[in-house]
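Cont'd.
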Amino acid sequence: MAYPVVDEAKCVGCEECVDICPCDVFEMKNEKCVVERSEDCEECESCVETCEEGAIEMVEG
Ligand code: SF4
Ligand code: SF4
């Protein structure tokens, strides 16, 4: 089972990952996105592809 992690230092708060995730995994907090519901991730990797900052990567867990 894999889920995304966000490198907060790279995140510019564009919200693209929040918009594209079909599973509502992300939330915005203090102008950064955070992984709020990693258990709902279906591993489509759309968020990884969408983030132009390269701030999201998938980890096995
Ligand atoms: S798409 Fe990338 S830069 Fe934009 S909010 Fe998500 S993690 Fe941050
Ligand atoms: S891999 Fe897909 S389902 Fe999982 S957080 Fe990213 S966009 Fe959402």
